[in-house]
Structures are given as C-alpha cells and as structure tokens.
Design a protein that fits this description.
With 403 residues, the chain is of the alpha/beta class. The chain has 2 domains: 5-141, Response regulator (Rossmann fold); 144-402, Rossmann fold. 49% of the residues lie in helices and 17% in strands. It has 16 helices and 13 strands. The protein has helices at 14-24, 39-49, 62-75, 90-99, 111-142, 160-175, 191-195, 203-212, 246-259, 273-281, 293-308, 331-338, 350-359, 363-366, 371-384, 391-402; strands at residues 5-10, 30-36, 53-57, 80-85, 103-106, 147-152, 179-183, 223-224, 230-232, 262-266, 284-289, 316-323, 344-347. α4 links the parallel β4 (80-85) and β5 (103-106). α6 (160-175) packs across α15 and α9 packs parallel to α10. The longest helix is centred in the N-terminal third of the chain and has 32 residues, at 111-142. The protein starts with a strand and ends with a helix. The relative contact order is 0.10. The structure holds adenosine-5'-triphosphate (ATP) and magnesium ion. Adenosine-5'-triphosphate binds at residues 153, 156-162, 185, 269, 321-322, 346, 348-350, 353-354, 357, 372.
Length: 403
C-alpha cells in the first residue's frame, strides 16, 4: 500500500478529532486532509477535497447523520464513508449501510482497529472504482459512432432521393446494422412517398424532444419502415422548414450517431446552412450527377465549393446516375471536366425506378436483380467495407473489360 490515503474527520468533539489525528500521525500512508465540526461543513470540505475516506460521527441527530452519508455517497462516489458511534446497534448499522456507509467503528476508535479498518475500506474502494470504470468503458463502447452519408447535388431531379432511400435499405440488409434515413429536404421532402409511410414523428418533433429531454431522442418515436430502417422525415408543413437551422441539424446528427451505424441524409438541390452542417459531419458526401451539361457544370461548382470548405478529398464521391449518353456528353468527357472518376455508375432504368416510386416500394426490395439494384449493392458494399469493391462487381468489371 504505497499510496497516501486521504482522510477527512467530521466530529463535533475536538478531543475525538485530535485523538484520531494523533493515532493516524505515525502511519505514514494516511494523511488527514481536513476536519470539520458540523456535518454540512463536512460535506462542503469533502466536495472540495474529495478525500478517499470520511470518518463521520453519528452520535446525536441520527437522521441528519444518515442524510449526510447519503449526500456524500451520491455526490462523491469514490469516497468511502466510515461511520463512528458510541453504540452500534443493528438498526443504526442497517440504516447507515442503506445510505451508503462502508464500515463502522465504535467510539473511541482504537488505534490498531482504526488503521486496519481504514486500510480495508480504502482497498475495497479501489476495487469498486476499477470495477465501475470498466463498466463505464464497456457502456461507452456499446454506443455507436454512426457514419453520416450525405446524398446531394446542386441540381434538382438527379436522383438524390432515389439513391438515398435505396442505399439506406440496402446498407441495412448488407451490414445488419441499424440505419436511419434523415430527410433534410425540409420544404419538399418526399421520402414518405418513396417509402409509402405516414411519419408521425418529424424533424420538428425531434428538435423539440432534444430540447425538452436531456436523454436524447427516444427510439420508440422514430418512424419504422418494413425494411427495418428508421426514418426521420422533414417537417409536416413546408413553412416549418425555416425554423430548422444548422445547430439543430448538428444536435440531431450527434444523437443519431450514438444509436445508428449509418445515417443516410437526403438533401434539397442547394447547399444551405442545414446541408453544410450535415456535410461537415459526414464521412461520405455522395454528389449525384448525370450527363446533362447543366448538371455537370453544377457538379463542378459543387466540387469547388467543397474544396474551399477544406473537406478531405476522399470523403467526396461523385456518382453518375441515369448513366445514358443520350444527352450528347460522354462519360469520359464528363470525367475529364470534373477531374475525377465516378465512384459508382447507376444505370438508367425508367421502368424499374419509375414503378418503384409509384408503388412506394424501393427497387432494392421489389426488384433486387435489376441492374439499378446491383449498382446500389455495389455502393453499399464500398461504404460498408471501407471503399472495397464487392467481389461480384469486380467479376463484372473484369468480364466487361475482357469483352
Ligand atoms: N437511375 C434512374 N433511372 C431512371 N430514372 C431515374 C433514375 N434515378 C432517378 N430517376 C427518376 O428521376 C426522377 C427524380 O428522382 P429523385 O426524386 O430521386 O431526384 P431528386 O434529386 O431527389 O429530386 P429533387 O431534387 O426534386 O429532390 C424520378 O422520377 C425518378 O424516377
Ligand atoms: Mg429528392
């Protein structure tokens, strides 16, 4: 026992305090860091000094003494209270223990017994602390550190909601992890239409709940889709959109990150304060483009904005959706203009995509074998496996090149 054990004595008798100090003096590993006559004074000193042990006199005014034990045990969980009293009957011992006392000493305490008792209490306190710290760490480990994946574009109608909804469901299926879809298209969000759901709990409610409750969003309130993903929809009325700001988005994301492994964020076709807050928190920014000249120009501009925001280059991924060269620009030309490769290419399939939206059944569920579904699977695979291509996709790329 090489450590110095700090002791605080709370006893109204000057003689008792002096006698305990005298008895502890020769024991080099004990230090009396303070003493107090009254109990409330004792609590104040204890809160400041946080001693290892408090020797507390329980003579006279027992209910008040028990309350003192309770207060110290609650406020200073690493401090052990040792109770002293002239008479130690069963009732006093039981009430003291229930309030949090760790040991008892009959007054006046005998030197040898005093030293032994304090040493035992200290050792037991260390074991309790180590056990509790281990428990706290294991609880923290169980908390998730969800990845935020923002699906965005500077142009409307390029397929953000299509990619976001299908990706959320496919990532959940592939990883088996909890996934939430967050609709930051605050004015015209249409995720409920794509998923055929009626959300009763929206971003507006979430903001209120985070304000009211310190414990965060209740999982039971989240809207659940048949696929197993959860959805936090845009406010029910477009005019509520103005109320939501960047710091609301930050706190919603922080809360969701503790509970979900992936947070897929759908966005409007602009980079306002709320979208930028989500982008700041993102591990991946999926910038959707197509081969239309105006979209390519908008995509180039978006890349420049992200560069000026100093986002890590490897978190920005450009996806080509509706890959068809019918608009007169080739995929090669657009890659040259953008100065980067497409992370994923999603084919154009109006029949599969259109009918899936009309029926409210995402194509990764209703048409898992369609090429569009396979490209979403390839995307999920890369996100879930730190950028690696899925083995199937690699085989396909190899076969295409060999042809
Ligand atoms: N790969 C695809 N093949 C064929 N049609 C597609 C494809 N992706 C999206 N679409 C069609 O494009 C239209 C717009 O899609 P979506 O709503 O997902 O775009 P958005 O970027 O979210 O639009 P907004 O900016 O208005 O929110 C839809 O009618 C959808 O059917
Ligand atoms: Mg959309």
């Amino acid at each position: 026992m090489a450590e110095t054990i700090s002791v605080l004595i709370v006893d109204k008798s000057d003689d008792t305090r002096d006698s305990i100090k005298e008895q502890l003096k020769p024991a080099r590993n004990f230090t009396v860091v303070g003493d107090a006559k009254g109990r409330s004074e004792g609590i104040g000193i204890a809160e400041r000094l946080k001693p290892d042990i408090i020797l507390l006199d329980l003579n006279g005014g027992e209910p008040e003494g028990i309350e003192t034990i309770r207060v110290i045990s609650q406020r200073l969980p690493w401090t052990s209270v040792v109770v002293m009293a002239d008479i130690m009957d069963q009732g006093i011992m039981k009430r003291s223990m229930l309030a949090g006392a760790k040991e008892f000493l009959a007054k006046p305490p005998d030197g040898k017994v005093l030293l032994e008792t304090l040493a035992e209490v200290y050792d037991e306190g260390i074991r309790r602390k180590e056990g509790l710290m281990g428990f706290v760490e294991s609880v923290n480990i169980q908390e998730k550190e969800g990845k935020v994946i923002v699906v965005c574009s500077t142009k409307g109608g390029v397929g953000k909601t299509t990619v976001a909804t299908n990706l959320a469901i496919d990532l959940h299926r592939l990883s088996g992890e909890p996934v939430v879809l967050l609709d930051l298209d605050l004015q015209f969000g249409d995720i409920p239409l794509f998923l055929d759901i009626v959300p009763r709990f929206t971003i507006g409610d979430a903001i209120q709940e985070l304000k009211d409750k310190k414990s965060g969003l209740a999982e039971g309130h989240m809207c659940k889709h048949d696929s197993g993903i959860h959805v936090l929809a845009a406010p029910s009325r477009p005019e509520y959109a103005d109320y939501v700001n960047g710091s609301h988005v930050q706190s919603i994301l922080k809360d969701l990150q503790r509970k979900y492994s992936y947070i897929i964020v759908d966005t409007p076709p602009s980079f306002g304060e709320t979208v930028l807050s989500a982008m700041d928190a993102a591990s991946h920014i999926l910038l959707i483009t197509n081969l239309e000249i105006t979209t390519i120009r908008g995509t180039k501009l978006a890349l420049e904005i992200m560069q000026s925001l100093n986002y890590r280059d490897d978190k920005i991924k450009v996806l080509l959706n509706r890959a068809t060269e019918q608009w007169g620009i080739s995929s090669k030309e657009s890659k040259e203009t953008l100065g980067r490769d497409f992370w994923e290419v999603i084919p154009s399939d109006s029949r599969v995509v259109g009918s899936s939206i009309n029926q409210g059944v995402p194509f990764v569920m209703g048409q898992p074998r369609a090429e569009v579904s396979k490209s979403i699977r390839s995307l999920s695979y890369k996100i879930n496996n730190g950028g690696l291509e899925s083995p199937r996709r690699l085989k396909r790329v190899f076969l295409n090149k060999a042809r």
